[in-house]
Each structure stands twice: as C-alpha cells, then as structure tokens.
Amino acid sequence: MTHQIESESRLKPHKIWQDGHMPQPCAIVIFGATGDLAQRKILPTLAHLMHDHPLPQSFRIVAFARRPLDDEKWRTMALASINEYMAPDDRLDEQAQQQFASRLFYCRSNFDDPEGYQRLKQLLEKLDHEQGTEGNRLYYLATPPDTDSEIIAHLGAAGLNHAGQVSGNGNHGKSWARIIVEKPFGHDLSSAQRLNRDLGRVFRENQIYRIDHYMGKETVQNIMAFRFSNGIFEPLWNQRYVDHVQITVAESLGIGTRAEFYEGEGAIRDIVQNHIMQVLCLTAMEPPVAFDADAIRDEKVKVLRAIDPFTADEVKRNVVRAQYVAGEIDGEQVVGYKQEQGVALDSTTETFVALKLFIENWRWEDVPFYIRTGKHLPKRSTEVTIQFKRVPHQLYRPSETKGLVPNRLTMRIQPDEGISLKIGAKIPGAASQLSSVDMSFSYNEAFGIESPEAYERLIADCILGDSTLFIRRDEIEASWRIIDSITKTWQRLPASTIHTYRAGTWGPAEADELLERDGRSWDNP
Fold it and tell me: Which residues are annotated as a binding site?
C-alpha cells in the first residue's frame, strides 16, 4: 500500500504560522553567536524563517559574543554563514540578504562581564523604541554548557529576565522574555538539578525552553498523531498484543572534530539521555487529557517515573557498551575511536550502547524495550519498531512459513521518513508458502509537502510561546535518574567490560546476544 501523488519537481512549502497565530515582534539574543551551533544552525534557520515565513518587520537579532566585532563585521560574518550552510534551493538573493543583514546587531562582551549585560540592556531598549521590538526578548544560549549558569545569573542581575517596558506598544502588558537552553542539560542528575535551580532563581518555568532538536522532527511528532488518531492501532498498543519494542538511533559518521565533547559525554549522555528517552516517552505514553503542553508533558514524565533505576547486576546483564575499532564505511577505511584526534589511548568512553529496560505500569508490564545507538554503524537511521506477538496457533507447517516473521510496525524517523507494517502473505502459486511483505508509505510521497527543519519548528514555537515540544524540569531529572544508575555502575567496572565492534557493522556481538537470549533479534534498518 504505497500512497502516491502526482510527481512534482520539488515538494510544496510548508506553513509554519498556523491558524492566524502570527508572532509578535521581538529581539532574539544569541549568546555565543560566533560559535559553530549559531553559524551552522541558528542563523540559517532564522534567515529561512524571515524569508519563507515572513516575520514582523521589527524582528531583530542581537549577537552577544567575545570577538572584537561591530555591527558591520558581524553582518558580514552572518551572511557568509547563511550562504555556506543554507540548502542551495533556500539561499537568499542579494536583496533578501541585505534585508536580513539590516536586522542584525552586535554586542561585544565576555560572559562574565556585568557591564556587558548593561550594554545589552541598553541596546535592547534602543531596539524597542527605534525598531519596534515591543519589549519582547528571546535569549538563546548557543554556548558551552559550563557557561550557562554564569550567563543566567548575569541576565537576572541586569534585570533582563523581564520583558522590556515599552509604553504604547499595543501589547497591554503582554510583552515577554524567554530563554532557550541547549542540550546537554547537565552532565548527570546533580548537575541538571543545579542548573534547574539556577534557572529557577531567575526565570519562571513558563519562560524556560529546554530544547532537544529531535522533538522538532516532524516524524517524531507524528508518533503521537499515528497512535491517537487511528482506532485500529491504539487498542493493540499494550502488553496483551505487543511482544517487544526496539528503538534504534544509528549514525554512520564517527566523532569527527567533537573529541573533546564526546570524551566527556559518550553515547549514553549524547543520545540516550535525551533523544532516545523523548522518543521512548512518545511511544509509550498514555493519551493526554488534552493536546496542550502540560498535559502531554505530564504523560511523558509518568513513563520515565515508571522505569526503575538499574541495579548493578542489571547493568551487567542488560546494558552493553562498546567502542568502534578500524573498519570500512561506504567503501572507505576509517580509524578506530582511540586513534581519533583528541581521544586518549586508554579512553573508556562508549561510542555504542545497547540496553533492555521495562516500563512498570499496566500498559507495558513485562514488555521489554530494547534500545541501541552508535557511531560508525552501517547507515544513518532512526527507527521505532513495535513487534506484535505471534498468532496463538500457526495453521501452516514450519516448512511453509520459513520467510514469515511476526507482524512489525516500523516508524522511520530519519532519513527515509515513513511508516511500514510487516504482514504475512501467501506467495503466488499452488504451494502454500508464506512470506512477510511490507505495507508502507512515505511522508513526502503521501503529502508532497516539505517538512520543516527541526530548529525552525522549535524556534518558531518558542517565539509563539508554545512549550509543547520542549522539555520540562521534571522530565530532565527523571531521565537523568535512569542514566545515572547506569553510568555510576560503569565507573566501578573494569575497562575490560567495554566491548569493541568494527566500524561499518551493527555493533558488538554482545548487543545481539542481549536479544538472542530472549529468543529475539534486532530489526536492522
């Protein structure tokens, strides 16, 4: 069942501002605006928003960074970035570039300089009065995590945690101030709690937007749409009919130039604690009482609280960690993790994690959830697979069902976005031979509409004040409680418990054994 539409040379553009909800004018302040994240992701996203999804003319972007730049040099740098990192068919013409550049301003300061925040305050007040930003501020911390608390404290000390006071702006006291905090949100539970406390001293919870770009992916959001808008699947979404669930986040790339970051985080903190836990929550949550931010996040937290922390014995038995060694990716030889530039030869940082966990509630009692993620795997892919239980009595002889597997529902999050359902069917011919076939559809083919980039959707939601796709304080801490129970056990285990796998393979043999001892196997993309 492939849903087809008339072929088009390119997908139709999507709409980011829906149902008449247009954003208010505002100033976006990017801390660390000259850094990699701002240059590669944030600036191109804002340029795309302004050009393809018109924003109010009084929308302005302020860079807060250490480099000795002025407005003109900053504008030159920003234009160079958007020309390099925007998709070729999205790039702005000369007129649009100049319009974008005219909205850019620069505030030079070190993050620990109180006077710099006073200069920022004066600049924002000037923009309110002269450029019409109406006292609305959005602070984006595109900075190293160890600077977050310092920046937050200085924002509070300068009074920048409140909306600007602009008389006669027409908002009648509805101006706002919000802050976006990037992952990693803490390094463990205690550091996450400390950062939450630091944020809570300066900003109210409804001003705080903890961003995980996976939540901005259209296909991640479609997990909820698929579950709660299709009456034939939701009744089967429980322990009576589901045998097990698999979540795979595979990356074909290695660590690249991120050795310093990766050595401190590893795969479990980089991917499992945030991306995978968010996908897990959407897959396993109960129906929310309403489609609003608090109701949805309430149900996600319940899932995390229903996962017991791992005991030391459970970590040894149900968690596999490994590092890649030299191998071949797409026909090219690649070095092992310990040979990557910046990685210590005695490093115990994992580049692969596989684990089995249970959600202790009525819906999922005794249903194992198998999770894995890794670098330098054969292909880039993120998938959720729901494997249903076998039929209670197989009418056909074993010789007739060699190609038959249990029903599997696979939600492909990236890169080939879509959903497929594996069913049993008879092979044409006189013999009764059964095989598994796929019923599938592709989002692009079905709708013919391009999906918004993850950062585009999330930044737009923050400007509108919609926190549905952002992570709440208790979600962060509940997730870290699970991860800490694993990493603290790892600290007490010898280095010999870290397995190896050849780059270009699906991980170590021990990850396969994790399922094989349960009579199951990984569903490789």
Answer: 66, 183, 213, 217, 251, 270, 375
Residue type, 88: P
**Eight-class DSSP state of 484:** H
CA distances from 99 to 25, 59, 70, 301, 449 (A): 16, 11, 18, 43, 27
Burial 218-231 (b: 16+ CB within 10 A, else e): bbbbbbbebbeeee
Nearest to 245 by CA among 515, 60, 48, 450: 515
pLDDT band at 525 (very low <50, low <70, confident <90, very high): confident
**Over 395-425, what HEC string results?**
CCCHHHCCECCCCEEEEEEECCCEEEEEEEE
Using the 8-state DSSP alphabet, how is residue 274 labeled? I
At 329 the three-state DSSP class reads strand
Q: Calculate Rg over the CA atoms of the chain.
A: 25
> What are the structure tokens assigned to 25, written together?
């004018």
pLDDT for the residue 429 = 62
User: For residue range 237-248, what is the model confidence (pLDDT) as tens digits?
Assistant: 999 999 999 999
Residues noted as catalytic: 275
Distance (Å, rounded) from C-alpha 302 to C-alpha 83? 44
The identity of residue 17, as a single letter, is: W
pLDDT grade, residue 169 (50/70/90)? low
Q: Are 320 and 499 in contact (CB under 8 A)?
A: yes
> For residue 441, what are its two tokens?
């559809």
158's tokens = 């300068």
* Per-residue pLDDT tens digits for 247-263: 999 999 999 888 888 99
Q: How many CB atoms lie within 10 A of CB 160?
A: 21
Residue 130: Cβ-neighbour burial (10 angstroms; 0-12, 13-18, 19+):
exposed
d(CA 436, CA 398): 14
Q: Are residues 375 and 351 in contact, defined by beta-carbon separation less than 8 angstroms?
A: yes
Known binding residues for substrate are 213, 217, 251, 270, 375
Angle value at C-alpha 181, between 178 and 186, nearest 5 degrees: 140
Cα 446 to the chain's mean position, in Å?
Answer: 24
Evaluate if residue 416 carries a pLDDT over 70. yes
Identify which of 155, 123, 122, 157 has the alpha carbon closest to the alpha carbon of residue 139: 155
For the sheet with 381-388, list strands across it.
434-442, 418-426, 408-414, 381-388, 242-250, 368-374, 352-358, 319-325, 499-502
pTM over 0.70: yes
Binding site as annotated, residues for NADP(+): 66, 183
If you average pLDDT over residues 365-392, what whole number do you get?
93
pLDDT in tens, 122-152: 999 999 999 999 999 999 999 988 999 999 9
Tokens representing 348 are 């115990």
**CB hemisphere CA count around 496 (13 angstroms):** 1
Say yes or no to pLDDT of 198 above 70: yes
